[in-house]
Amino acid sequence: MKPITERNPVAVGLAGLAVMGLIALAVFFSSDLPLIGGGTTYSAYFTEAAGLQPGNPVRIAGVTVGRVTGVSLAGDRVLVSFKVKNAWVGDASTAGIDIQTVLGDKYLALDPQGRVAQNPGQTIPATRTTSPYDVTQAFGGVGQDINQINTKELAKSLETIAVTFRNSPPYVHTAIRGLAALSRSIASRDAQITSLLAGTNKVTGQLSSQDSRFKTLLSDGNLLLTELRDRQQAIHNLLIGSQQLSVQLSGLVSDDSATLGPALRALSQVTAVLEANQANLDKALSLTGPYYRLLGNALGNGRWFDTYLCGLIPKAYSPPAVVPAKGCIPPKPGGGG
Questions:
Q1: Are 308 and 337 in contact (CB under 8 A)?
Q2: Distance CA 293, CA 202 (A)
Q3: Tens of pLDDT, residues 41-94
Q4: Cβ-proximal residues to 146 (8 Å cutoff; 6+ apart), any chain
Q5: In terms of Cα–Cα distance, which of 83, 82, 108 is closest to 95?
Q6: Whole-number Å distance between alpha carbons of 101 and 211
């Protein structure tokens, strides 16, 4: 084989571009590849699409197992194709279109039933599928229809009908008159109804713009509930332990009541004696401080201590110069002994 450097660079470049294109296509359609793809494709008939769109999730018991791949008309029914990976779908499984968020996002809910696996080539019949009634879309359609009605012309038409049926039986005439009055009331409130519908449109638009926040809020709520569910056993064990502790404490108090009673009575007597001698205790504590202070001064000079004895020698044997007239003074004018 010739080395790449000796080959035609144009041909090498085109071959490289072709290989890169194939790799890009393989990456882009990786979910459709047989080995690493997105699983098995099934289909189901529904009486109405109810807002389901390709790309909406497919869930089993709240767990996402695939995606909706297509929604198309098939006569008077809607054919929905979806792909499921790593999930078992039985031949009696049911499918339903459920609401994912408060803003009307949908998902396909599967309930796997049956003893035999569902044949991907057989479409799940409409008898095993359910479609919700989308209130949001219904109100939106009503608003659009009302905006397109010429209320003044409607009032004139009902007035004409009332005049035409003026010779009809009284109950028919009364019913037509009631319809005419209703149309006049609607026509008189035309501007207010239009303003109300415009405000409703703004509210729905604002809610739609906050869709991501609603999803985040719901997701955080799911995380909180999951954490509480995970901690349920720990909380249960804590409550059981608290109950057992209270039982043990009750038994301890019951067993030692004969000992605790006399001990508490003796403690009460001791506190009564201390309370009765409160004044003496206060006086003793007030004298203890000066006593220990003087004792510390006497013994705090090292290997000896200072002391002074007064009246040990009679005054007759003491020199007159050092005998005080009253009381006792140290024998040395500067103190000491």
A1: yes
A2: 88
A3: 999 999 888 888 898 999 998 888 989 999 998 888 899 999 998 888 889 999
A4: 193, 197
A5: 108
A6: 8
Closest CA to 37 of 64, 81, 67, 57: 67
Rounded distance, CA 121 to CA 127, Å?
A: 18
Give the count of beta carbons closer than 10 Å to the beta carbon of residue 107.
19
Residue carrying structure tokens 């490289």: 16
Domain boundaries, given as residue ranges, for the chain? 38-132, 138-211
Query: Degrees (nearest 5) of the Cα angle 164, 170, 172?
Result: 60
Return the H-helix or E-strand segment holding 235. helix 232-255
Q: Which residues contact 284 (CB under 8 A, 6 or more apart)?
A: none
Please, are residues 58 and 66 in contact by the beta-carbon 8 Å criterion? Answer: yes
Alpha-carbon gap, residue 223 to 66, rounded angstroms:
22
* Tokens describing residue 41: 């494709």
pTM of the model: 0.36
Q: Which pLDDT belongs to residue 45? A: 93
Better pLDDT: 33 or 126: 126
Cβ proximity of 93 and 128 under 8 Å: yes
Q: Which residues of 270-298 are buried (b: 16+ CB within 10 A; e: fewer)?
A: eeeeeeeeeeeeeeeeeeeeeeeeeeeee
Instruction: Give pairs for 209-218: CB < 8 Å, separation 24+.
Output: 211/101, 211/103, 211/105, 214/101, 214/102, 214/103, 215/101, 218/101
